Amino acid sequence: MFTSRRGRIAAGIFAAGAVLTLAACSSGDPLAEDDSAGSGGDSIAIGAAGFAESEIIAQIYAQALEANDITVDFKGQIGQRDVYIEALNDGSIDLIPDYSGNLLQFFDDSSEAKSSDEVLAALQDATPDGLEVLDQSEAEDKDSYNVTKEFSEANGVTSLADLAGIDVPLIVGGNPELAERPYGPKGLTDVYGVDAARISFVPISDSGGPLTTGALLDGTVTIADIFSTTPSIEENGFVTLEDPENLILPQNVLPLINSDKASDKVTKVLNAISAELTTDDLIELNARNQGDEKAEPEALAKDWLAEKDLF
Amino acid sequence: MNLFGDAFRWILEPSHWTGPNGIPNRILEHLAYTGLTVLIATLIAVALGLYIGHTGRFRGIAVSVTGAMRALPTLGLLVYLAVLFGLGIQFALIPTIIVLVVLAIPPLLAGAYSGVQSVDGRTVDAARSMGMTEWQILWKVEVPLALPLILGGIRSAVLQVVATATVAAYISLGGLGRYIIDALPVRDYTTVLVGALLVTILALVLDGILILCQRLTVPAGVRAIRSSPGQRSTTKSASTVSTAA
Amino acid sequence: MTWVLANLGQIWELTVAHVLLSIAPIVLGFLLAVPIGWFAYRFRVSRGLVLTVCGLLYTIPSLALIVAMPTILGTKILDPLNLIVTLTLYAIALMVRTATDAFDAVSTDVIQSSTAVGFGAWRRFWQVELPLAGPVLLAGLRVVSTSTVSLVTLGALVGMSGLGYLFTNGYQRNFPTEILTGIVGTVLIAVVFDILLVLIGRMLLPWARVDDAARRGAGTARVKAVAA
Questions:
Q1: What is the DSSP-derived secondary structure letter of residue A166?
Q2: Domain B2-243 - what CATH class?
Q3: CB-side exposure of A12: number of CA atoms within 13 Å?
Q4: DSSP string spanning A244-301?
Q5: Can you tell me the mean pLDDT for B194-218?
Q6: Which residue, of A207, A240, A273, is where some domain finishes?
Q7: Residue C65 near residue C89, CB atoms below 8 Å
Q8: Domain membership flag for residue A277
């Protein structure tokens, strides 16, 4: 009877489905493969935070390590610090580029360190067991509070210290997490005495990118948190407010790594990169990434390594 | 479980009930996006759906186009429009509403045309033979009979829009998504859960209200048909839609 | 266009990752939803509960569910499993309703006849109910497939690979071309999956005029499937 044929075919649907599932599961594995066996220093999972600069530096690390016969698993755009530190802790990644000051405040928000070297020393102490930071580079990229030239002139503001004395509503724009950071609106109140009631916050999820810039230009916000190596600061003639009290700590780029993976070879490669990386490099790399060229992190990293004649 | 306890404590905390980031304000914003979206989408989709259902034309096109619309990734479309218009974040409402309307149209359209098409051909013929104009047939026969499915479409659209309006926060708007998008980068999962809970509760309340509307607006004649066994295939779809809680 | 050509390698990698992340939820969702749907159809008492739970599931914002997964499953936070399980749940939520309707649509006369000629419940399911429900199940599966492929893009907000990366990255540097590439890629994957499903349907369900029935089913399936 034809019914039995239908039955077979229907069973076939399920069989096919089951096979697909198995295929999907087994092919899903390569995605999950990361550090599992902890096979010495020969494989390393590199992560990048959720913004382009981090990805570019992470690509530099990745390509340099690959050139030294280390297997690299790259995981881009993980998110912000809270997320990628957790990813380091649970072994999803082993290495990520980070910024000294913000990382220190993340591990120890009561630290009194101010200068670049103090911050690094404090950071080395504060970094929890199992993780460590390697040599820091000269390259620095920090959060910075920017206003338009007009705003600066109209209100006579050139420094964060001036903010407490002026009588204009302060609308701060920045990534959502800035609201919770010690150098965010809270810091303006605690360190510079700006009345909290006068500050409002507009979250913009582009890490100080073009939308933040746009919001500052069109007046949606009056003060914008933009990374200091972002080309748009200069392009738009924004005034970066001085920070005499060091609300925002020095932010040197350095590798944060799982101690088990920090073999001599890996350490040597990463330290060689840090020795060469400069703030101007970052500005140039960012400009090529965000400007008309829209160069991708992978290509930028390749160019940088070639230019510095590394590996 | 502890996370749920923390979330409820967060919700009950009086200081979370005032100000721009307070729960009432976020819910109102969320409702505003949803309401505006569903209004615009209903005007477009129900008109089209009734036309397609009544004339039987362009049905194949409607199915393919709505199918393609479903495939459009909401987040991608949202950031694309936001960047393309170059309006910055000041007019973020425009791309947001467009994206949500795109999301709401397929269920609304499907509800409207399948509603009209589910009307028994003999009923329509009877109306025509009584001398009703096509316009009268549409409004006096087809629309009332299609109402359960049209409202079913509105219900699915509302639920989808409420759940998805959270993405508005990604381009700096408000709404309940703010709790999720702001708390995500700092791994404050209590607040993420608060956002999710409030969205779910809001969806359930709105759905309850719409079920009530569905009950109240379905004409008595249709309700009578429901219990008649001969019409099983038509009414079944209506009743399954209404069992969706 | 130059950007696309210059970055074909990366786009292809993201596309492959996207496809891999999409397949498991679609297949698992289907395989799990069909028995649940059959259960809801066969045992009327369970129906309200099953459909309500599925409806409720569908209103949970997906981002919240993804980040809750490591707590629920004990997985690492970047584990693709978090996304796969979340999307499987949504697939089930969408598919169960259609599956229930699909079995409902099998004519009572046919079922009674098959019982009369001596089919037991097991044989009746495989040889009568399932084949006859096939076309509507397929219509539902096509909806699930499309929506899953689109939802995978959300993974980009929580560090998963896939074409969604082009959205967040393109947004951060104000680059419409990159975002559009991601949108087009996602739609293409959805279309290819859809065509594959239709072809599989033609092979496995030769007795059904697949196109016609699926289309008819898709209309109502869409309304109901999403009537969360």
A1: -
A2: mainly alpha
A3: 15
A4: TT-SSPP-BEEEEEEGGG--HHHHHHHHHHHHH--HHHHHHHHHHHHSTT---HHHHH
A5: 87
A6: A240
A7: yes
A8: yes
Over residues A132-140, the mean pLDDT reads: 94
- Are A213 and A236 members of one domain? yes
Type of residue numbered C224:
K
Whose CA is closest to C159, among A215, B47, A48? A48
What is the Cα B198 distance to its own chain's centre?
17
Residue A114 sits at φ, ψ, to 5 deg, of -120, -50
The answer to whether the Cβ–Cβ distance between B186 and A79 falls below 8 Å is no
A86 closest CB neighbour out of B82, B83, B187: B187
CA dist., res. C19 & res. C15, Å (int): 6
Residues 78-137 of C with CB under 8 A from B: 97, 100-101, 104
Residues A215, B182: C-beta atoms closer than 8 Å: no
Q: Indicate the range of A50-59, B26-35, C138-147, C208-217 predicted with least confidence.
A: C208-217
CA C136 to CA A153: how far, in whole Å?
68
Using one digit for the tens of pLDDT, what is the confidence trace for C5-26?
A: 888 888 999 999 999 999 999 9
In this structure, is the dihedral angle defined by the CA atoms of residues C196, C202, C205 and C209, taken in order, positive or negative? positive
Considering only CB atoms, which chain B residues are within 8 Å of A214? 86, 88-89
CA distance C63 to B196: 9
Using the structure block, give the residue that is written with the tokens 């003060």.
Answer: A223
Let me know: does B179 contact B166? Beta carbons within 8 Å. no
Chains that touch A (3 or more CB pairs under 8 A): B, C
Q: Which one of A221, A240, A259 terminates a domain?
A: A240
The total domain count for chain A is 2
Distance from CA of B35 to the nearest CA of A (A): 24
Q: Can you give the CATH number for the domain in which C81 is found?
A: 1.10.3720.10
Q: Helix (H, G, I), strand (E, B), or coil: what is residue A136?
A: coil
CB environment B118-147: b (16+ within 10 A), e (fewer): bbeeeebeebeeeebeeeebbeebbbbbbb
Residue C137: closest CA among C95, C200, C179: C95
What is the distance in angstroms between the Cα of A107 and the nearest Cα belonging to chain B? Answer: 14
Answer whether residue B28 shows pLDDT above 80: yes
Q: DSSP letter at A178?
A: G
pLDDT band at C208 (very low <50, low <70, confident <90, very high): low
CA distances from B79 to A112, B76, B132 (A): 40, 5, 49
- pTM of the entire predicted model: 0.81
In this predicted complex, what is the ipTM? 0.81
How many angstroms separate the CA of residue A193 from the nearest CA in chain C? 32
pLDDT at A42: 79
Q: What is the pLDDT of residue B184?
A: 82
- The tens digit of pLDDT for each residue in A95-110 reads 999 999 989 989 998 8
Q: Count other C-beta atoms under 10 Å from residue B21's C-beta.
A: 14
* Domain span at A208: 143-240
- Provide the number of structural domains found in chain C: 1
Residue type, B157: A
